[in-house]
């Protein structure tokens, strides 16, 4: 879905590889698999934040089937969640505001634009 929209995508095959990649290359955002192999997403996120590598300040977003529980993810130093099933969003939809300004910590993707429609 991301590649089809023209985004550059790099994939880590497990949490440890993701931590290693984030240490040397700047990514934004990082989509973090919560139950990835080798190192789970919560631990990987904490390690990315603590290591002060190239992506230590990147937005880290967890795709999840949970409809609630944002606080749980914030506690593990993630910035946001994407609720599954993921849907393709057109630039004219509410997400368009993300391209102009970073979204505030704790903003639930797909919710109303926190900056209003007149950016």
Tags for this entry?
119 residues, alpha/beta, Rossmann fold, 3-stranded parallel β-sheet
Structure commentary:
The structure is a single chain. The chain has 119 residues and is an alpha/beta fold. It has one domain (3-91): Rossmann fold (3-Layer(aba) Sandwich). The chain has helices at 15-24, 41-51, 70-75, and strands spanning 30-31, 60-64, 80-83. The chain has a three-stranded parallel beta sheet. Strand 2, helix 3 and strand 3 (80-83) form a beta-alpha-beta unit. Helix 1 packs parallel to helix 2. The longest helix is centred in the middle third of the chain and has 11 residues, at 41-51. The radius of gyration is 14 Å and the shape is globular.
